[in-house]
Design a protein that fits this description.
The complex is a heterodimer. Chain A is α/β, with parallel strands linked by helices. Chain A is built from nine helices and 15 strands. Classes of the chains: A alpha/beta, B alpha/beta. At the A-B interface, helix 3, strand 5, helix 4, helix 5 and strand 8 of A face strand 1, helix 5, helix 6, strand 5 and helix 7 of B.
Protein backbone atom coordinates (compact mmCIF):
# COMPACT_ATOMS: atom_id res chain seq x y z
CA UNK A 1 0.00 0.00 0.00
CA UNK A 2 1.36 3.39 -0.89
CA UNK A 3 1.39 6.16 1.64
CA UNK A 4 -0.26 9.41 0.58
CA UNK A 5 1.30 11.54 3.25
CA UNK A 6 4.91 11.25 2.32
CA UNK A 7 7.53 13.74 1.30
CA UNK A 8 9.38 13.62 -1.98
CA UNK A 9 11.62 10.61 -2.54
CA UNK A 10 15.10 11.77 -1.68
CA UNK A 11 17.33 8.76 -2.24
CA UNK A 12 19.64 7.47 0.48
CA UNK A 13 20.76 10.95 1.42
CA UNK A 14 20.73 14.48 0.10
CA UNK A 15 23.65 15.61 2.20
CA UNK A 16 26.53 17.15 0.33
CA UNK A 17 28.64 16.97 3.49
CA UNK A 18 30.67 20.04 2.65
CA UNK A 19 33.46 20.91 5.09
CA UNK A 20 32.52 23.59 7.61
CA UNK A 21 35.26 25.97 8.73
CA UNK A 22 35.62 28.55 11.48
CA UNK A 23 36.21 31.98 9.95
CA UNK A 24 35.82 34.39 12.85
CA UNK A 25 35.39 34.52 16.61
CA UNK A 26 34.00 36.94 19.15
CA UNK A 27 33.72 36.82 22.93
CA UNK A 28 32.26 39.16 25.52
CA UNK A 29 32.78 37.93 29.07
CA UNK A 30 33.70 39.02 32.54
CA UNK A 31 37.25 37.94 31.71
CA UNK A 32 37.49 40.15 28.67
CA UNK A 33 35.27 41.92 26.20
CA UNK A 34 37.39 41.10 23.16
CA UNK A 35 38.35 37.62 22.04
CA UNK A 36 42.12 38.14 22.32
CA UNK A 37 42.12 39.64 25.80
CA UNK A 38 39.62 37.05 26.96
CA UNK A 39 41.76 34.15 25.74
CA UNK A 40 44.95 35.59 27.20
CA UNK A 41 43.27 36.01 30.57
CA UNK A 42 41.71 32.58 30.49
CA UNK A 43 44.87 30.73 29.56
CA UNK A 44 46.72 32.73 32.25
CA UNK A 45 44.29 31.28 34.82
CA UNK A 46 42.85 34.67 35.73
CA UNK A 47 39.62 34.78 37.70
CA UNK A 48 36.53 36.46 36.27
CA UNK A 49 34.15 35.37 39.01
CA UNK A 50 34.26 38.31 41.37
CA UNK A 51 32.24 39.94 44.15
CA UNK A 52 28.86 40.94 42.75
CA UNK A 53 28.46 44.57 41.70
CA UNK A 54 25.70 44.99 39.12
CA UNK A 55 23.73 42.24 40.85
CA UNK A 56 24.71 43.28 44.37
CA UNK A 57 21.21 44.45 45.27
CA UNK A 58 19.68 41.07 44.55
CA UNK A 59 19.21 38.86 47.60
CA UNK A 60 21.01 35.67 46.63
CA UNK A 61 22.86 32.85 48.38
CA UNK A 62 26.14 33.72 46.66
CA UNK A 63 28.64 36.52 46.95
CA UNK A 64 30.04 36.27 43.43
CA UNK A 65 29.19 36.21 39.74
CA UNK A 66 30.93 36.42 36.39
CA UNK A 67 29.59 39.86 35.54
CA UNK A 68 30.60 41.97 32.57
CA UNK A 69 32.71 44.95 33.61
CA UNK A 70 30.76 48.12 34.32
CA UNK A 71 32.74 49.79 31.53
CA UNK A 72 30.98 47.60 28.99
CA UNK A 73 27.59 49.20 29.60
CA UNK A 74 28.21 52.56 27.97
CA UNK A 75 25.81 52.39 25.02
CA UNK A 76 22.22 53.55 24.69
CA UNK A 77 20.75 50.15 25.62
CA UNK A 78 19.80 49.62 29.28
CA UNK A 79 22.42 48.06 31.54
CA UNK A 80 21.90 44.30 31.49
CA UNK A 81 20.25 44.18 28.07
CA UNK A 82 21.38 41.20 25.96
CA UNK A 83 21.36 42.91 22.56
CA UNK A 84 24.55 44.99 22.95
CA UNK A 85 26.34 41.94 24.35
CA UNK A 86 25.37 39.85 21.34
CA UNK A 87 26.18 42.67 18.92
CA UNK A 88 29.64 43.18 20.41
CA UNK A 89 30.53 39.51 20.04
CA UNK A 90 29.02 39.29 16.58
CA UNK A 91 30.98 42.33 15.36
CA UNK A 92 34.24 40.77 16.55
CA UNK A 93 33.53 37.54 14.67
CA UNK A 94 32.67 39.33 11.45
CA UNK A 95 35.70 41.62 11.75
CA UNK A 96 38.08 38.70 12.23
CA UNK A 97 36.65 37.15 9.08
CA UNK A 98 37.34 40.32 7.11
CA UNK A 99 33.85 41.77 7.39
CA UNK A 100 32.03 39.80 4.71
CA UNK A 101 28.85 41.27 3.25
CA UNK A 102 26.50 40.84 6.25
CA UNK A 103 23.57 40.03 4.00
CA UNK A 104 25.49 36.91 2.92
CA UNK A 105 25.58 35.74 6.54
CA UNK A 106 22.66 33.83 8.06
CA UNK A 107 22.12 33.83 11.82
CA UNK A 108 21.55 31.11 14.39
CA UNK A 109 21.01 32.36 17.93
CA UNK A 110 21.36 30.39 21.15
CA UNK A 111 19.90 31.65 24.42
CA UNK A 112 17.97 30.39 27.40
CA UNK A 113 15.93 33.43 28.44
CA UNK A 114 17.23 36.10 26.04
CA UNK A 115 15.51 39.34 27.05
CA UNK A 116 13.22 39.10 30.07
CA UNK A 117 11.67 42.53 29.72
CA UNK A 118 7.92 42.09 29.66
CA UNK A 119 8.25 39.49 32.41
CA UNK A 120 10.36 41.30 35.01
CA UNK A 121 9.95 44.90 33.89
CA UNK A 122 8.28 46.84 31.08
CA UNK A 123 9.36 45.76 27.64
CA UNK A 124 8.66 43.29 24.88
CA UNK A 125 11.37 40.66 25.16
CA UNK A 126 9.21 38.14 27.05
CA UNK A 127 12.15 35.75 27.42
CA UNK A 128 11.67 34.65 23.82
CA UNK A 129 14.98 34.12 21.98
CA UNK A 130 13.47 34.50 18.50
CA UNK A 131 12.61 38.12 19.25
CA UNK A 132 16.21 38.82 20.22
CA UNK A 133 17.45 37.02 17.09
CA UNK A 134 15.31 39.22 14.87
CA UNK A 135 16.59 42.37 16.58
CA UNK A 136 20.19 41.17 16.30
CA UNK A 137 19.82 40.39 12.60
CA UNK A 138 18.23 43.80 11.97
CA UNK A 139 20.88 45.64 13.96
CA UNK A 140 23.72 43.89 12.13
CA UNK A 141 22.08 43.90 8.70
CA UNK A 142 22.45 40.15 8.54
CA UNK A 143 20.75 37.68 6.23
CA UNK A 144 17.99 35.35 7.38
CA UNK A 145 17.57 34.02 10.89
CA UNK A 146 17.80 30.26 10.40
CA UNK A 147 16.85 29.33 13.95
CA UNK A 148 16.81 30.39 17.57
CA UNK A 149 17.79 27.46 19.74
CA UNK A 150 16.63 27.44 23.35
CA UNK A 151 17.71 24.12 24.72
CA UNK A 152 18.87 25.20 28.18
CA UNK A 153 22.60 25.13 28.81
CA UNK A 154 23.22 23.04 25.69
CA UNK A 155 21.73 25.75 23.48
CA UNK A 156 25.10 26.94 22.19
CA UNK A 157 26.36 23.52 21.15
CA UNK A 158 23.00 22.60 19.63
CA UNK A 159 23.02 25.86 17.68
CA UNK A 160 26.49 25.08 16.33
CA UNK A 161 25.30 21.61 15.40
CA UNK A 162 22.24 22.96 13.60
CA UNK A 163 24.29 25.56 11.73
CA UNK A 164 26.91 23.00 10.74
CA UNK A 165 24.23 20.74 9.31
CA UNK A 166 22.78 23.54 7.16
CA UNK A 167 26.23 24.46 5.88
CA UNK A 168 27.29 20.89 5.23
CA UNK A 169 24.12 20.23 3.27
CA UNK A 170 24.79 23.19 1.02
CA UNK A 171 21.76 25.21 2.10
CA UNK A 172 23.82 28.25 3.10
CA UNK A 173 27.45 29.36 2.80
CA UNK A 174 28.02 31.43 5.93
CA UNK A 175 26.32 31.25 9.32
CA UNK A 176 26.99 33.42 12.33
CA UNK A 177 26.22 31.48 15.50
CA UNK A 178 25.74 33.71 18.53
CA UNK A 179 25.19 32.42 22.04
CA UNK A 180 24.13 35.01 24.59
CA UNK A 181 22.70 35.27 28.08
CA UNK A 182 22.92 38.02 30.68
CA UNK A 183 22.63 37.85 34.43
CA UNK A 184 19.13 38.57 35.68
CA UNK A 185 17.60 38.41 39.10
CA UNK A 186 15.11 35.94 37.61
CA UNK A 187 17.73 33.37 36.66
CA UNK A 188 19.98 33.90 39.66
CA UNK A 189 17.04 33.56 42.04
CA UNK A 190 16.04 30.41 40.19
CA UNK A 191 19.40 28.74 40.66
CA UNK A 192 19.39 30.04 44.21
CA UNK A 193 16.08 28.47 45.12
CA UNK A 194 17.31 25.18 43.66
CA UNK A 195 20.29 25.42 46.07
CA UNK A 196 22.53 25.11 43.03
CA UNK A 197 24.74 28.17 43.62
CA UNK A 198 28.15 28.01 45.23
CA UNK A 199 28.49 30.80 47.78
CA UNK A 200 32.01 31.50 46.53
CA UNK A 201 33.59 30.99 43.11
CA UNK A 202 32.68 27.53 41.87
CA UNK A 203 35.14 24.65 42.00
CA UNK A 204 34.32 22.21 39.21
CA UNK A 205 35.47 18.62 39.81
CA UNK A 206 36.89 19.44 43.26
CA UNK A 207 35.96 17.42 46.33
CA UNK A 208 34.59 20.59 47.94
CA UNK A 209 32.44 21.74 45.03
CA UNK A 210 29.15 23.27 46.12
CA UNK A 211 27.42 24.25 42.89
CA UNK A 212 27.63 26.70 40.03
CA UNK A 213 28.65 30.31 39.73
CA UNK A 214 26.65 32.16 37.13
CA UNK A 215 28.20 34.33 34.50
CA UNK A 216 27.07 36.40 31.55
CA UNK A 217 28.32 37.15 28.10
CA UNK A 218 28.21 36.17 24.49
CA UNK A 219 30.18 34.07 22.09
CA UNK A 220 30.02 34.38 18.34
CA UNK A 221 31.51 32.18 15.68
CA UNK A 222 31.31 32.72 11.96
CA UNK A 223 31.13 29.40 10.14
CA UNK A 224 31.81 29.17 6.44
CA UNK A 225 32.09 26.61 3.69
CA UNK A 226 34.69 28.71 1.86
CA UNK A 227 38.07 27.15 2.60
CA UNK A 228 39.77 30.44 1.75
CA UNK A 229 38.05 32.07 4.74
CA UNK A 230 39.09 29.39 7.24
CA UNK A 231 41.27 30.30 10.18
CA UNK A 232 42.60 26.76 10.21
CA UNK A 233 39.92 24.96 12.20
CA UNK A 234 36.86 23.06 11.04
CA UNK A 235 33.90 21.44 12.74
CA UNK A 236 34.54 17.81 11.97
CA UNK A 237 31.62 16.30 13.86
CA UNK A 238 28.57 17.13 15.89
CA UNK A 239 26.05 15.06 17.81
CA UNK A 240 23.21 15.35 20.24
CA UNK A 241 21.40 13.03 22.61
CA UNK A 242 18.97 12.96 25.47
CA UNK A 243 19.61 11.14 28.73
CA UNK A 244 15.92 10.23 28.97
CA UNK A 245 16.67 9.81 32.65
CA UNK A 246 15.68 12.88 34.68
CA UNK A 247 14.40 16.30 33.67
CA UNK A 248 16.85 18.19 35.86
CA UNK A 249 19.74 15.85 36.65
CA UNK A 250 22.10 14.13 34.22
CA UNK A 251 22.16 10.38 33.94
CA UNK A 252 24.52 9.32 36.72
CA UNK A 253 26.56 7.09 34.44
CA UNK A 254 27.08 9.89 31.92
CA UNK A 255 25.57 7.70 29.23
CA UNK A 256 23.80 10.57 27.46
CA UNK A 257 27.01 12.51 27.17
CA UNK A 258 28.74 9.40 25.84
CA UNK A 259 25.99 8.92 23.26
CA UNK A 260 26.32 12.51 22.03
CA UNK A 261 30.12 12.28 21.94
CA UNK A 262 30.04 8.98 20.05
CA UNK A 263 27.69 10.49 17.49
CA UNK A 264 29.99 13.48 17.02
CA UNK A 265 33.06 11.25 16.75
CA UNK A 266 31.23 8.98 14.33
CA UNK A 267 30.33 11.87 12.08
CA UNK A 268 33.97 12.97 12.21
CA UNK A 269 35.05 9.37 11.47
CA UNK A 270 37.39 9.51 14.43
CA UNK A 271 38.23 7.06 17.17
CA UNK A 272 38.17 8.37 20.72
CA UNK A 273 41.91 7.70 20.87
CA UNK A 274 42.43 10.41 18.25
CA UNK A 275 41.06 13.14 20.54
CA UNK A 276 43.88 15.30 21.90
CA UNK A 277 42.06 17.52 24.34
CA UNK A 278 38.58 17.76 25.86
CA UNK A 279 36.73 20.87 26.93
CA UNK A 280 34.10 19.83 29.44
CA UNK A 281 30.83 21.29 30.68
CA UNK A 282 32.14 21.25 34.28
CA UNK A 283 29.46 23.21 36.10
CA UNK A 284 30.59 22.58 39.66
CA UNK A 285 27.48 20.71 40.73
CA UNK A 286 27.92 17.36 42.42
CA UNK A 287 25.76 15.50 39.91
CA UNK A 288 27.01 17.06 36.68
CA UNK A 289 30.71 16.75 37.36
CA UNK A 290 30.44 13.17 38.60
CA UNK A 291 28.36 12.07 35.61
CA UNK A 292 30.60 13.85 33.14
CA UNK A 293 33.74 12.29 34.58
CA UNK A 294 32.28 8.82 34.63
CA UNK A 295 30.92 9.10 31.10
CA UNK A 296 34.18 10.38 29.65
CA UNK A 297 36.12 7.73 31.53
CA UNK A 298 33.92 5.10 29.93
CA UNK A 299 34.15 6.71 26.49
CA UNK A 300 37.94 6.59 26.56
CA UNK A 301 38.00 3.24 28.37
CA UNK A 302 40.61 4.56 30.77
CA UNK A 303 42.53 7.77 31.27
CA UNK A 304 41.20 10.54 29.08
CA UNK A 305 43.28 13.01 27.11
CA UNK A 306 43.92 16.31 28.94
CA UNK A 307 40.62 17.78 30.12
CA UNK A 308 39.76 21.32 31.09
CA UNK A 309 36.77 23.53 31.67
CA UNK A 310 36.19 27.27 31.93
CA UNK A 311 33.30 27.77 34.32
CA UNK A 312 35.66 28.11 37.28
CA UNK A 313 36.83 31.37 35.68
CA UNK A 314 33.87 32.85 33.82
CA UNK A 315 30.93 31.18 35.53
CA UNK A 316 28.13 29.35 33.77
CA UNK A 317 27.00 31.58 30.94
CA UNK A 318 24.04 29.30 30.15
CA UNK A 319 22.94 29.75 26.53
CA UNK A 320 26.25 31.38 25.68
CA UNK A 321 28.37 28.67 27.29
CA UNK A 322 28.48 26.26 24.37
CA UNK A 323 29.67 28.92 21.93
CA UNK A 324 32.17 30.66 24.23
CA UNK A 325 33.63 27.34 25.36
CA UNK A 326 33.87 26.00 21.81
CA UNK A 327 35.99 29.05 21.05
CA UNK A 328 38.15 28.20 24.06
CA UNK A 329 38.58 24.66 22.74
CA UNK A 330 39.64 26.08 19.37
CA UNK A 331 42.14 28.30 21.15
CA UNK A 332 43.52 25.24 22.93
CA UNK A 333 44.21 23.61 19.57
CA UNK A 334 45.87 26.75 18.27
CA UNK A 335 48.00 27.27 21.38
CA UNK A 336 48.74 23.54 21.78
CA UNK A 337 47.77 24.08 25.37
CA UNK A 338 45.05 23.07 27.79
CA UNK A 339 44.13 25.86 30.18
CA UNK A 340 44.11 25.14 33.89
CA UNK A 341 41.06 24.05 35.83
CA UNK A 342 40.73 27.04 38.13
CA UNK A 343 39.16 26.13 41.46
CA UNK A 344 40.39 22.55 41.37
CA UNK A 345 42.61 21.54 44.27
CA UNK A 346 41.68 17.97 45.12
CA UNK A 347 40.09 15.78 42.48
CA UNK A 348 36.60 14.81 43.54
CA UNK A 349 35.43 12.75 40.58
CA UNK A 350 36.34 9.62 38.62
CA UNK A 351 40.16 9.66 38.43
CA UNK A 352 40.12 8.60 34.79
CA UNK A 353 39.40 12.25 33.99
CA UNK A 354 42.82 13.80 33.29
CA UNK A 355 42.46 17.18 34.98
CA UNK A 356 45.14 19.62 36.07
CA UNK A 357 44.77 22.82 38.08
CA UNK A 358 47.51 24.44 36.00
CA UNK A 359 47.79 25.01 32.24
CA UNK A 360 49.71 22.34 30.31
CA UNK A 361 51.17 21.91 26.88
CA UNK A 362 49.55 19.36 24.62
CA UNK A 363 51.83 16.82 22.96
CA UNK A 364 49.51 16.84 19.97
CA UNK A 365 46.71 19.29 19.13
CA UNK A 366 44.77 18.14 16.08
CA UNK A 367 41.37 17.20 17.51
CA UNK A 368 39.34 18.66 20.38
CA UNK A 369 36.13 17.28 21.82
CA UNK A 370 33.68 19.79 23.32
CA UNK A 371 30.79 18.46 25.39
CA UNK A 372 27.91 20.06 27.23
CA UNK A 373 24.48 19.39 28.61
CA UNK A 374 21.50 20.96 30.25
CA UNK A 375 18.11 20.67 31.88
CA UNK A 376 15.74 18.37 30.07
CA UNK A 377 18.44 15.70 29.73
CA UNK A 378 19.95 17.42 26.70
CA UNK A 379 23.51 16.46 25.78
CA UNK A 380 25.59 17.73 22.87
CA UNK A 381 29.10 17.33 21.52
CA UNK A 382 31.33 18.82 18.85
CA UNK A 383 34.57 17.57 17.35
CA UNK A 384 36.94 20.32 16.22
CA UNK A 385 39.86 19.68 13.88
CA UNK A 386 42.87 21.94 13.41
CA UNK B 1 14.11 6.95 1.35
CA UNK B 2 10.85 8.78 1.87
CA UNK B 3 9.22 10.17 4.97
CA UNK B 4 5.73 9.24 6.13
CA UNK B 5 3.41 11.13 8.41
CA UNK B 6 2.76 8.19 10.68
CA UNK B 7 0.95 9.90 13.53
CA UNK B 8 -0.74 13.20 14.12
CA UNK B 9 -2.60 14.90 16.93
CA UNK B 10 -4.08 18.24 17.85
CA UNK B 11 -4.82 19.57 21.31
CA UNK B 12 -6.53 22.94 21.22
CA UNK B 13 -8.93 25.08 23.23
CA UNK B 14 -11.80 22.69 22.55
CA UNK B 15 -10.28 19.29 23.05
CA UNK B 16 -7.90 16.59 21.93
CA UNK B 17 -7.92 14.38 18.87
CA UNK B 18 -5.25 12.09 17.56
CA UNK B 19 -4.59 9.35 15.07
CA UNK B 20 -4.30 6.87 17.93
CA UNK B 21 -8.09 7.13 18.09
CA UNK B 22 -8.45 9.59 20.93
CA UNK B 23 -11.16 12.20 20.51
CA UNK B 24 -12.41 14.11 23.53
CA UNK B 25 -13.43 17.58 24.55
CA UNK B 26 -12.16 19.30 27.65
CA UNK B 27 -15.77 19.97 28.59
CA UNK B 28 -16.51 16.22 28.54
CA UNK B 29 -13.49 15.69 30.75
CA UNK B 30 -14.57 18.49 33.08
CA UNK B 31 -11.25 20.29 32.78
CA UNK B 32 -9.60 23.28 31.21
CA UNK B 33 -7.52 22.99 28.03
CA UNK B 34 -4.46 20.89 28.70
CA UNK B 35 -6.24 18.72 31.20
CA UNK B 36 -5.27 17.30 34.54
CA UNK B 37 -3.48 14.24 35.81
CA UNK B 38 -6.86 12.56 36.20
CA UNK B 39 -7.93 13.49 32.67
CA UNK B 40 -4.69 12.09 31.28
CA UNK B 41 -5.32 8.83 33.13
CA UNK B 42 -8.91 8.70 31.93
CA UNK B 43 -7.89 9.18 28.32
CA UNK B 44 -4.80 7.01 28.16
CA UNK B 45 -5.05 4.60 31.07
CA UNK B 46 -1.70 5.62 32.50
CA UNK B 47 -0.16 8.44 34.48
CA UNK B 48 2.40 10.94 33.20
CA UNK B 49 5.25 11.69 35.60
CA UNK B 50 5.29 15.31 36.81
CA UNK B 51 2.20 16.18 34.72
CA UNK B 52 0.82 18.19 37.62
CA UNK B 53 3.89 20.45 37.48
CA UNK B 54 3.45 21.19 33.78
CA UNK B 55 2.12 24.53 32.64
CA UNK B 56 -0.76 24.58 30.17
CA UNK B 57 1.53 24.56 27.15
CA UNK B 58 3.42 21.50 28.36
CA UNK B 59 0.17 19.72 29.21
CA UNK B 60 -1.21 20.34 25.73
CA UNK B 61 2.02 19.00 24.27
CA UNK B 62 2.07 15.90 26.47
CA UNK B 63 -1.55 15.16 25.63
CA UNK B 64 -0.88 15.58 21.91
CA UNK B 65 2.15 13.27 21.98
CA UNK B 66 0.11 10.53 23.58
CA UNK B 67 -2.82 11.06 21.20
CA UNK B 68 -0.51 10.96 18.19
CA UNK B 69 0.56 7.48 19.26
CA UNK B 70 4.24 8.14 19.89
CA UNK B 71 4.41 5.10 22.15
CA UNK B 72 2.87 2.76 19.56
CA UNK B 73 4.42 4.12 16.38
CA UNK B 74 8.10 4.20 17.24
CA UNK B 75 9.69 0.77 17.69
CA UNK B 76 11.75 0.31 20.82
CA UNK B 77 14.86 -0.27 18.76
CA UNK B 78 14.44 3.09 17.01
CA UNK B 79 13.97 5.19 20.13
CA UNK B 80 17.69 5.30 20.91
CA UNK B 81 18.09 7.60 17.90
CA UNK B 82 14.72 9.34 17.75
CA UNK B 83 14.91 13.12 18.02
CA UNK B 84 12.29 15.39 19.56
CA UNK B 85 11.92 18.79 17.93
CA UNK B 86 9.40 21.32 19.17
CA UNK B 87 8.93 24.91 18.08
CA UNK B 88 7.17 27.60 20.05
CA UNK B 89 6.58 31.29 19.77
CA UNK B 90 5.41 31.91 23.32
CA UNK B 91 7.61 29.35 25.03
CA UNK B 92 6.83 28.95 28.70
CA UNK B 93 5.73 32.51 29.29
CA UNK B 94 3.05 31.29 31.67
CA UNK B 95 5.59 29.63 33.93
CA UNK B 96 7.92 32.60 33.63
CA UNK B 97 5.18 34.80 35.03
CA UNK B 98 4.40 32.36 37.82
CA UNK B 99 8.04 32.18 38.81
CA UNK B 100 8.53 35.94 38.55
CA UNK B 101 5.53 36.48 40.83
CA UNK B 102 6.96 34.02 43.34
CA UNK B 103 10.14 36.05 43.63
CA UNK B 104 8.36 38.51 45.87
CA UNK B 105 7.71 35.69 48.33
CA UNK B 106 10.20 34.71 50.99
CA UNK B 107 11.47 31.91 48.77
CA UNK B 108 11.02 31.79 44.99
CA UNK B 109 9.11 28.81 43.59
CA UNK B 110 11.71 26.09 43.16
CA UNK B 111 9.23 23.72 41.53
CA UNK B 112 8.41 26.28 38.82
CA UNK B 113 11.91 27.46 37.96
CA UNK B 114 13.09 24.39 35.99
CA UNK B 115 10.02 24.71 33.80
CA UNK B 116 10.93 28.28 32.86
CA UNK B 117 13.11 26.47 30.35
CA UNK B 118 10.76 25.12 27.70
CA UNK B 119 12.96 22.13 27.01
CA UNK B 120 12.59 20.82 30.57
CA UNK B 121 9.13 19.63 29.56
CA UNK B 122 10.64 18.08 26.44
CA UNK B 123 12.95 16.16 28.75
CA UNK B 124 9.89 14.74 30.49
CA UNK B 125 8.61 13.54 27.12
CA UNK B 126 11.98 12.05 26.24
CA UNK B 127 11.87 10.11 29.50
CA UNK B 128 8.31 8.89 28.95
CA UNK B 129 9.01 7.53 25.49
CA UNK B 130 12.72 6.74 25.86
CA UNK B 131 13.69 9.12 23.06
CA UNK B 132 17.47 9.42 23.07
CA UNK B 133 18.09 11.34 19.87
CA UNK B 134 18.74 15.08 19.83
CA UNK B 135 16.26 17.34 21.58
CA UNK B 136 15.60 20.70 19.99
CA UNK B 137 13.46 23.48 21.38
CA UNK B 138 13.26 26.15 18.69
CA UNK B 139 12.02 29.61 19.50
CA UNK B 140 10.15 31.03 16.51
CA UNK B 141 9.03 34.55 15.72
CA UNK B 142 5.54 35.62 14.76
CA UNK B 143 4.68 34.31 11.32
CA UNK B 144 7.21 31.49 11.38
CA UNK B 145 5.71 28.00 11.16
CA UNK B 146 7.36 24.68 10.40
CA UNK B 147 11.00 25.16 11.40
CA UNK B 148 10.94 22.10 13.66
CA UNK B 149 9.30 20.03 10.93
CA UNK B 150 11.94 21.04 8.38
CA UNK B 151 14.76 20.37 10.81
CA UNK B 152 13.38 16.90 11.55
CA UNK B 153 13.35 16.12 7.84
CA UNK B 154 17.02 17.07 7.65
CA UNK B 155 17.86 14.68 10.48
CA UNK B 156 15.94 11.88 8.80
CA UNK B 157 17.46 12.57 5.39
CA UNK B 158 20.94 12.64 6.90
CA UNK B 159 20.33 9.20 8.37
CA UNK B 160 20.53 10.31 11.99
CA UNK B 161 17.28 8.54 12.84
CA UNK B 162 14.44 6.53 11.33
CA UNK B 163 11.71 8.37 13.24
CA UNK B 164 11.18 11.85 14.64
CA UNK B 165 8.65 13.47 16.94
CA UNK B 166 7.93 17.05 15.88
CA UNK B 167 5.48 19.64 17.02
CA UNK B 168 4.48 23.13 17.89
CA UNK B 169 2.93 24.39 21.08
CA UNK B 170 1.43 27.72 22.15
CA UNK B 171 -0.57 28.82 25.15
CA UNK B 172 -1.59 32.30 26.18
CA UNK B 173 -4.38 33.02 28.62
CA UNK B 174 -5.11 36.61 27.70
CA UNK B 175 -4.16 39.00 24.92
CA UNK B 176 -0.64 40.36 25.12
CA UNK B 177 0.62 42.93 22.64
CA UNK B 178 -0.16 41.59 19.20
CA UNK B 179 -0.84 38.08 20.52
CA UNK B 180 -4.35 36.81 21.02
CA UNK B 181 -5.24 34.18 23.62
CA UNK B 182 -4.43 30.76 22.24
CA UNK B 183 -4.16 27.12 23.20
CA UNK B 184 -2.76 24.68 20.70
CA UNK B 185 -0.31 21.82 20.40
CA UNK B 186 0.23 19.94 17.16
CA UNK B 187 2.38 16.82 17.21
CA UNK B 188 3.41 14.62 14.29
CA UNK B 189 5.35 11.37 14.24
CA UNK B 190 7.53 11.15 11.14
CA UNK B 191 8.88 7.84 9.90
CA UNK B 192 11.56 7.39 7.28
CA UNK B 193 10.71 4.33 5.25
CA UNK B 194 12.23 2.55 2.29
CA UNK B 195 10.21 3.33 -0.82
CA UNK B 196 9.67 -0.27 -1.76
CA UNK B 197 9.98 -1.68 1.71
CA UNK B 198 6.71 -3.44 2.40
CA UNK B 199 3.55 -2.24 4.09
CA UNK B 200 3.35 1.42 4.92
CA UNK B 201 0.76 2.70 7.35
CA UNK B 202 -1.81 5.04 5.77
CA UNK B 203 -1.15 8.67 6.50
CA UNK B 204 -2.51 9.79 9.84
CA UNK B 205 -5.90 11.42 9.28
CA UNK B 206 -5.21 11.16 5.55
CA UNK B 207 -3.30 14.37 5.93
CA UNK B 208 -1.66 15.71 2.79
CA UNK B 209 2.09 16.13 2.86
CA UNK B 210 2.87 19.77 3.65
CA UNK B 211 4.16 21.55 0.58
CA UNK B 212 7.31 23.63 0.78
CA UNK B 213 6.60 27.10 2.06
CA UNK B 214 3.32 26.19 3.74
CA UNK B 215 2.73 27.08 7.38
CA UNK B 216 3.14 23.40 8.24
CA UNK B 217 1.70 23.12 11.70
CA UNK B 218 -1.20 25.46 11.01
CA UNK B 219 -2.17 23.38 7.98
CA UNK B 220 -1.88 20.12 9.90
CA UNK B 221 -3.96 21.51 12.74
CA UNK B 222 -6.65 22.66 10.32
CA UNK B 223 -6.68 19.25 8.66
CA UNK B 224 -7.04 17.34 11.91
CA UNK B 225 -9.79 19.64 13.18
CA UNK B 226 -11.67 19.41 9.89
CA UNK B 227 -11.33 15.64 9.71
CA UNK B 228 -12.11 14.84 13.32
CA UNK B 229 -14.79 17.44 13.95
CA UNK B 230 -16.18 17.73 10.49
CA UNK B 231 -15.60 21.44 10.87
Amino acid sequence: MSCPATGPQTGPTTSLNRPVYVAGRGVVSGLGTACGTFMDALFASQQGILPRERSAAWALPTTVAGELPASFWTGPEPVGAPLPVAVAAARQALAEAGDPDPTSVALVLASTKADLTGVMCPGEGYGLPARLATKLAETMGLGPVLASVSTACASGLMALSLATRRLARGEVDRVLVVGVDVLTEFVMAGFGCLHALDREACRPFDTSRQGVSLGEGAGAVLLTTYGSESMGVRIAGHGGANDAYHAMRPAQDGSGLVLAARRALGRAQLAASEVDVIHVHGTGTEANDAAEARGLGDLFAGLTPPVFGSKGQIGHTLGAAGVIETLVAIEALQRCQAAGNVGLETLGVDPRLDLSPAPRSLPRARHALKVGGGFGGVQAALVLEA
Amino acid sequence: MTVALAGLALADEMGLMGSSGVHATWADLGTEPGGTTAAFRTLFGSTHKNFRRFDRAARLLAMACEAAGVAELIPGSARQDTPLLIETELGCLQTDRVFAASMSEEMADSSAFPYTLANTSLGELAIRYGLRGSTYCLSVDQGQDGLAFAEALRLLEDGDASHAVVGRVEWLESALGSWQPQAQAVVAVLAAVPVDGGLIRPAAFGAPWPETGQPVFSRLAEHVARTARGA
